[in-house]
Write a structure and sequence with these properties.
The protein is α/β, with parallel strands linked by helices and about 230 residues long. It has 2 domains: about 45 residues, Ribonuclease HI, Chain A (3-Layer(aba) Sandwich); about 140 residues, 2-Layer Sandwich (Nucleotidyltransferase, domain 5). The chain contains 7 helices and 8 strands. Strands 6-5-4-7-8 form a 5-stranded mixed sheet, sandwiched between helices. The longest helix has 15 residues. It is globular and about 55 Å long. Its EC number is 3.1.26.4. Monomer. Endonuclease that specifically degrades the RNA of RNA-DNA hybrids.
């Protein structure tokens, strides 16, 4: 039987050791600068909470995990290894200059990474998909990822099984037309299969710091082609 996990919250609404992910999530979800980590050993959790945690086996690179099959978010409740925000922008959609960005918070290593690039001629949807693709391929395989996006197009393809339907029908829509951005969807499908991803929709331009940062970076990349 797998050891029961506990969750240490170093920075959140409340700090301490929590015995369920639901309790932990209530303290950290949406909390700026939240720091938390899951453990199977309560003693190690206490050490980490008190800033004297030493990784087992002498530290070094995290041990690679076998890539899991994708699961709907409701079927797993593990603490995330990464919290990722992504966004895409196109200044003259479609076929105008665009940019994409991802803000990646590594909950295991305690690092924040920003990825961003642009293209001279693209669409808003292609930039949204590219941002998610680059973020998922950046993360260590087998990771639990909370991915926040303001794109219903991206989120619904996975959470409402649009992507599965397109594949089953030979990459055509319910209307019988070819699926747009098939090249990116195929790459995203492969990247998704290597991770455990929970998609979260966030409304854009309402002051969510990480989403606003992604928007700023994506637009800056697009402006390079103006």
């Amino acid at each position: 039987m797998a050891a029961k996990k506990v969750y240490a919250v170093r920075n959140g609404r409340k700090t301490g050791i929590f015995t369920t992910w639901a309790e932990c999530k209530a303290q950290v979800d949406g909390f700026p600068g939240a720091r938390y980590k899951g453990f199977t050993d309560p003693n190690e959790a206490n050490k980490w909470l008190n800033l004297d945690y030493v990784p087992p086996y002498g530290g070094g690179a995290p041990k690679k995990q076998a890539a899991p099959q994708p699961e709907p978010a409701a079927q797993f409740d593990d603490a995330p290894d990464y919290v990722i925000y992504t966004d895409g922008s196109c200044l003259r959609n479609p076929d105008g200059p665009g940019g994409w960005a991802a803000v990646i918070a590594d909950q295991i290593e305690g690092r924040l990474t920003e990825l961003h690039e642009g293209e001279a001629s693209t669409t808003n949807n292609r930039m949204e998909l590219t941002a998610a693709l680059r973020a998922l391929t950046f993360a260590r395989p087998g990771s639990v990822i909370d991915l926040y996006t303001d794109s219903q197009y991206l989120k619904n393809a996975f959470t409402k099984n649009w992507l599965a339907g397109w594949k089953r029908k030979g990459w055509v829509t319910a209307a019988g037309t070819p699926v747009k951005n098939q090249d990116l969807w195929q790459q995203l499908d492969a990247a998704f299969a290597r991770q455990k991803v929970r998609f979260h929709w966030v409304k854009g331009h309402v002051g969510v710091a990480q989403n606003e940062r992604c928007d700023e970076l994506a637009k800056a990349e697009a402006m390079k082609f103006m």
